[in-house]
């Protein structure tokens, strides 16, 4: 068996640790972590800068401050392969060309459906019954490369992001193992056909519209928990008794002690809300 020198590209600690273990289990050598500086929380508040002590001590840390730095940083560790997930930048062609086996990316959707940075949020918002995990070869565009391995998961009951992603984690590692095996066996990846690209939610989706069906409003509440805003407003916002609140959780069935609102076809219970500072609304 050929042992590959692999770089892990992510800004999310559980991904880094899980991919490190999966690569070792497959017989390969993780040599470095490639991450970025995100001190202002532009990409959702993930920043590994303060967590480097939790990473395996043998990993070199490559921390890019700009896209142009990625290629020379990779060249310094001579990888055969880059395994990527949760890396927010579009990777320049020069960086894609550094590893001889290219880059493979984990994307939490059933590609080609829901390309883009927040596929879980869109799966919830669109009312999909299932989403999935896909590993694909990376090319010059976003989430468009040929598919190496894929597995579907039920969306199931809507819940807090940590719990939701916790259910997804073991499946991601299983699909990564399948992708590495396919790559090692020389299996030709399957080209994507069709599909769509969806970005972050904009201000038009920030306020809840209770004249819509309750299930639709409920999905939008939870979808906002899995995205960051493209505009000035972070939903899901509602006007209640002359005050603007952010709805963090809702239920289609009664939850004792919570606020009931009437939608066009059924009631919805607002399980968890928080006040929205006037300054946040003034910026919109």
Describe this structure in words.
The protein is of the alpha/beta class and 284 residues long. The protein has seven helices and eleven strands. The strands form two sheets. A seven-stranded mixed sheet has the order 3-2-1-4-5-6-7. The chain is elongated, with a radius of gyration of 21 Å. 36% of the residues are buried.
Number of helices: 7
Strand order in the sheet with the most strands: 3-2-1-4-5-6-7
| Helix content bin | 25-40%
Structural class: alpha/beta
Q: What is the mean predicted local confidence, pLDDT?
A: 93
- What's the Cα radius of gyration? 21 Å
What's the main sheet like? 7 strands, mixed
- The total strand number stands at 11
Question: What descriptive keywords fit this protein?
Answer:
7 helices; 7-stranded mixed β-sheet; 284 residues; alpha/beta
Set down the secondary structure blueprint.
Blueprint: E1 5-9, H1 13-25, E2 29-36, E3 60-64, H2 70-75, E4 81-84, H3 93-96, E5 103-107, H4 119-125, E6 130-137, E7 147-154, H5 161-185, H6 214-224, E8 237-240, E9 243-251, E10 259-262, E11 267-275, H7 278-282
Parallel strand pairs: 1-2, 1-4, 2-3, 4-5
Antiparallel strand pairs: 5-6, 6-7, 8-9, 9-11, 10-11
Helix pairs in contact: 1-5, 4-6
Q: In brief, what are we looking at here?
A:
The chain is of the alpha/beta class and 284 residues long. 25% of the residues lie in helices and 24% in strands.
């Amino acid at each position: 068996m050929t042992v590959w020198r692999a770089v892990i590209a992510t800004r999310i600690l559980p991904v880094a640790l899980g991919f490190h273990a999966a690569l070792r289990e497959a017989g390969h050598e993780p040599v470095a972590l490639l991450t970025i500086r995100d001190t202002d929380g532009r990409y959702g508040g993930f920043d590994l800068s303060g967590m480097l002590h939790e990473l395996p001590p043998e990993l070199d840390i490559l921390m890019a401050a700009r896209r142009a730095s990625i290629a020379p940083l990779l060249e310094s560790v001579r990888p055969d392969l880059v395994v990527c997930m949760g890396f927010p930048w579009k990777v320049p062609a020069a960086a894609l060309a550094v590893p001889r086996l290219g880059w493979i990316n984990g994307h939490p959707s059933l590609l080609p459906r829901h390309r883009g940075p927040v596929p879980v949020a869109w799966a919830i918002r669109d009312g999909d019954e299932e989403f999935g995990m896909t590993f694909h070869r990376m090319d010059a565009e976003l989430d468009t490369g040929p598919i190496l391995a894929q597995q579907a998961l039920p969306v199931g009951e809507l819940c807090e992001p940590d719990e939701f992603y916790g259910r997804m984690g073991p499946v991601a590692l299983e699909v990564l193992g399948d992708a590495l095996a396919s790559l090692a066996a020389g299996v030709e990846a399957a080209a994507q056909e069709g599909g769509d690209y969806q970005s972050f939610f904009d201000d038009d989706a920030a306020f809840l519209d209770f004249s819509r069906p309750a299930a639709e409003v409920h999905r939008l509440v939870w979808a906002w928990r899995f995205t960051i805003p493209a505009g000035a407003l972070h939903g899901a916002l509602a006007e209640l008794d002359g005050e603007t609140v952010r709805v963090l959780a809702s239920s289609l069935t009664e939850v004792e002690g919570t606020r009931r609102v009437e939608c066009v076809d059924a009631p919805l219970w607002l399980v968890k809300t928080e006040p929205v500072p006037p300054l946040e609304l003034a910026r919109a």
